[in-house]
Design a protein that fits this description.
128 residues, 5 helices, 79% helix
């Protein structure tokens, strides 16, 4: 079985971070924005029951939550936490500047936030 060494993994993560730093800002924004609803689907599935539910219902909710993360990975959306990892490693390898790092973090964070707030507005609007 072929596997990457820790050094190879760090090198690959650094290259991905450098590649992300050259991504168009509008593409980064929309990729980050779409992450909010995708994660929201998983959270909404988990929050179907209330805290007094029996163990089986809570377990089903816990099984549903990772569906949101799987949708993020399969769609290629940008989650803020993954951008923190990629950009930090690329910065430490001196492949991106501090300005690039902060720019990607800022757009990714507020894109995720805007996407989640959009999803919350949809859910709140559907309940009326």
């Amino acid at each position: 079985m072929d596997a990457f060494t820790p050094q190879q993994t760090a090198e690959l993560v650094s290259r991905i971070g450098a590649k992300k730093s050259h991504m168009r800002l509008d593409k980064l924004w929309w990729n980050s924005f779409m992450t909010g609803p995708l994660i929201g689907f998983g959270i909404r599935g988990k929050r179907r029951g209330c805290s007094s539910d029996i163990g089986l219902i809570r377990m089903i909710g816990a099984i549903i939550f990772p569906v949101g993360l799987v949708m993020v990975v399969l769609s290629g959306a940008d989650l803020f936490t993954s951008n923190v990892m990629f950009m930090t490693v690329a910065f430490l390898h001196r492949r991106v500047t501090l300005l690039d790092l902060l720019k990607i973090w800022f757009i990714s964070f507020f894109g995720n936030l805007a996407g989640m707030l959009f999803f919350v507005a949809l859910i709140a609007g559907c309940k009326q």
